[in-house]
Design brief:
Immunoglobulin-like; five-stranded mixed β-sheet; 7 helices; 434 Repressor (Amino-terminal Domain); alpha+beta; 4 domains; six-stranded antiparallel β-sheet
């Protein structure tokens, strides 16, 4: 074979080799892509089930291409989209491959179905049937009744209010010749307004339909205190707050105090106890009570005549804001002249006198505690019910009065803290502090120590 033939032969071989056709490898199916992606992720079906919340049987059906085990096309698309996202695949590409492999050629672009709008029927006119009218009326009545009940509940649950518009301030000053003053204010409609100008005197006035009220009050020289509150006449509730009003009427510089003694009455007789001194004073800063012994009284039944003692020390009594004053005044047996003197800050005085007779019957014992003491008391041999069989502890300044026919016996836990006044005669303390003692008091004679406990 010549060189030319050899070359031609080699060229033919190359031509035949160049004409060899290489068949490309077919693309993987959707189940294969899903299986391969899960294996690359390194998880099994049960792990994928926990992560995607899709049952393992459905995931296995997708990887096998067995779509008949799936609940339907809608669920299958949802499973494929979620599974593709979990495996890191393009969900749109996966869905398109699923449609191609199903033979769904029109699935690439699903047409939008436009539903024709229904013909709009003409709106009927507004009509009222008898039933509708009755229902509307009943509804209005029901709402009105509920509103009325609500208002009544609120009224019964809420106390009335009270305001005072005149005077505009809590403390007011008027001219010295002003005899009266008009109070004004508001409260609930038809409410009752209470105006108290003394502990035992209250004036009531009814408010109008709009809640306004007025009332004229009498003024006296000095300080006039008024307390104003409201009462709901239907519920009985009173206002939560009481309004305090003070109206000052100045005194004339040269005016002396005025004085009235209500107790004791002139010529009164007392058998035991402290003499009650009381009355009223105006333009007075204080009242002083003193007594002068006039002579012995008639002897008490079964006893000796009363001694002729020295009069007690004067007692100074403060005058209240309403002008009243009161105090007990201890006197021994006999006839006495009591003098009550009112003094103003300018030094003016006014005095009144009362004659009284003190004739003690039986045993009258006044016990005053200075500090603290336990007491047990027998009156005519019987335990006094106020202290009881076990006795009672009294604090500093406590004053207790006991009255008997024959005897009074006192057991004290601290003799030095217990001061006695027998039938108006001050005996003071009879022992030492902290020493328990029992003292027997009779109508006559000095107190005696006993062993009674």
């Amino acid at each position: 074979m010549t060189t030319r033939d050899e070359a031609r032969r080699r060229g033919d071989v190359r031509s035949d080799a160049s004409r060899v056709t290489v068949t490309p490898e077919p693309p993987a199916s959707l189940p294969e892509r899903l299986l391969a992606a899960r294996e690359r992720k390194g998880v099994d079906l049960y792990r994928a089930e926990r992560d995607t919340k899709i049952r393992a049987r459905y995931l296995g059906a997708l990887e096998r291409g067995d779509y008949r085990e799936l609940p339907g096309a809608v669920y299958t698309k949802g499973f494929l989209r979620n599974y593709a996202l979990y495996l890191g695949l393009d969900p749109d590409d996966i869905l398109m491959q699923w449609r191609r492999e199903r033979g769904d050629t029109a699935a690439v672009s699903e047409p939008v179905i436009v539903v024709p709008r229904p013909l709009t029927a003409p709106r009927p006119g507004l009509t009222f049937s008898p039933a509708i009218v009755v229902a509307a009326v009943m509804t209005v009545v029901l709402f009105a009744f509920v509103a009325y009940l609500g208002m009544q509940v609120l009224r019964f649950a809420r106390p009335p209010t009270i305001t005072v518009s005149q005077p505009a301030t809590a403390v007011s000053d008027v001219d010295e010749d002003t005899p009266s003053y008009t109070l004004r204010g508001t409260t609930i409609p038809r409410g009752t307004v209470n105006i108290q100008d003394a502990p035992d005197h209250t004036t009531q006035v009814s408010a109008g339909a709009d809640g306004s009220w007025t009332q004229d009050v009498t003024l006296r020289r000095g300080r006039n205190d008024f307390t104003v509150w409201a009462t709901d006449p239907e519920t009985g509730k009173i206002s939560e707050q009481k309004v305090q009003i003070i109206i000052n009427v100045p005194f004339s510089v040269v005016q002396a105090p005025t004085l009235t003694v209500d107790s004791p009455a002139d010529g009164a007789s007392f058998e035991n106890g402290a003499i009650p001194i009381g009355g009223t004073a105006t333009n007075a800063a204080q009242v002083v009570v003193s007594a002068t012994f006039l002579g012995p009284a008639a002897p008490a039944s079964g006893g000796a005549p009363a001694p002729s003692p020295r009069g007690p020390s004067p007692v100074t009594v403060p005058v209240g804001s309403d002008g009243t004053f009161s105090t007990p005044f201890e006197l021994t047996s006999g006839r006495w002249q009591i003098t009550v003197t009112a003094s103003s800050t300018e030094g003016k005085t006014t005095a009144l006198q009362r004659s009284v007779t003190v004739a003690y019957k039986g045993v009258n014992l006044v016990v005053t505690i200075h500090g603290r003491a336990w007491l047990k008391v027998w009156v005519d041999g019987e335990v006094d019910p106020r202290v009881g069989p076990a006795g009672r502890v009294y604090g500093d300044g406590k004053v207790v009065t006991f009255t008997g026919q024959q005897t009074i016996e006192v057991r004290t836990g601290s003799s030095g803290a217990t001061f006695f006044t027998l039938n108006g005669t001050s005996l003071g303390r009879l022992g030492q502090s902290g020493i328990p003692e029992t003292w027997l008091f009779t109508r006559t004679g000095a107190p005696k120590l006993t062993q009674h406990q």
